[in-house]
Amino acid sequence: MAFNFRQLKNLDWSLLLVATFLVLTGLSVIYSITPGQSVPDYTLLNKQIIFFVIGLILFLIFLFLDYRLIGSIGWFFYGISVLALVLVLFLGPSIHGTRSWFRFLGFTFQPIELAKVGVVIFLAKFLSNRATNRLVLKDFILSFIIILIPIVLVLTQPDLGSALILIITWFIMVWFSGLQKKHLYLVLLTIIIISTLSWFFILAPYQKDRILNFIDSNRDLFGAGYNVRQSIIAIGSGGLLGRGLGLGTQSQLHFLPETEADFIFASLAEELGFLGCMFILVLYSLFFLRFYKAIRLSRDDFSLLLVLGFLSIFFFQVAVNIGMSLGLLPVTGLPLPFISSGGSFLIISFIMLGIIQSLIVRNKGVV
Question: What burial letters (b/e) apply to 184-206, b meaning 16+ CB within 10 Å?
Fold first, then answer.
């Protein structure tokens, strides 16, 4: 269906505004961290702004595209994603012991972020074409094969966090497609097998240390447990109102690692305090609430599964990132949506928003 510009009145502006506020918060934190460097370098901030602009452009492109057309070529997105995951294992540079990025013109891109979108679109189309009250065993197995291919490739990088997001997203989508209880045993058995094989043959030593340190937080406070320990200290030192932007001792004195990425929530908590954290959580709550509205607007199984898939990615990345900053979950390296530095997921996030808005404006507006 062709796009009618009068449909823009149905745009969910609150969803876009909340995402923009989150991005601006992330930019503020990244900016506040920069002066603490021995030689202040605003390259990271400038790149994040560029990624934000690119994300908005792609948001508009996917808004104008009919989400049903996107679903009809879901196989293409999936195929490109799998191909990119294969190529990065051979062509990607080794960064911190992993091959997860393509690097060109001073920028890096993680194909796993593209794969998250490709998998959700393809799975939503596959499951909607077979939608019944109960998902039969054959379709259940085929859906698992669809998700298993990128999971194996991601674990080979290795990237445990993204693999977990993929498996959780798949499970939620098949659950709402009519998953039978007897299939749950197959899911549990598969998870046990994959987890065991990953532990002995795939996970890097530092990833095993992260899991062991999560089980015993006092196991290695000056080694694998150092990052989480400093994160908890930073969050606690923020108090009610925070130390102020650019005044966080843990982040400014470099006790806290990855202040602009993995542990940006800890940086935010130290500088903006408890109230600042609550403000961010309220924004995320509003963001997820708008997805609920989009679910209510879904007119078919494909659109429903599409929204659920994207919602799962956003929700669990927020939960995991904040959880690992608080020491409640193992460190996985997943970015905090819209706030953490890194262009790959920021760009993909706005693509997902564009697709959701495409659904909203074509289904008689926001409720």
Answer: eeebeeeeeebeeebeeebbeee
Integer Cα distance of 42 and 180 in angstroms: 52
Q: What does the pLDDT read at residue 180?
A: 75
Q: Tell me: the pLDDT tens digits for 13-25?
A: 899 999 999 999 9
The whole-model pTM stands at 0.88
* Burial (CB count within 10 angstroms: exposed 0-12, middle 13-18, buried 19+), residue 77: buried
Amino acid 176 reads F
Q: Which of 282, 248, 281 is nearest to 267 (CA)?
A: 248
**What angle separates helix 226-237 from helix 301-325, to the nearest 10 degrees?**
90
Residue range 294-341, pLDDT digits in tens: 898 888 889 999 999 999 999 999 999 999 888 888 777 788 999 988
d(CA 17, CA 5): 20
CA angle in degrees (0–180, nearest 5) for 46-48-49: 65
Domain boundaries, the chain: 23-38+61-361
Non-local (6+) Cβ contacts of 328 within 8 A are none
Calpha distance 270→240 (Å, rounded): 10
Longest dimension (CA), the chain: 61
Band of the pLDDT at 366, cuts 50, 70, 90? very low
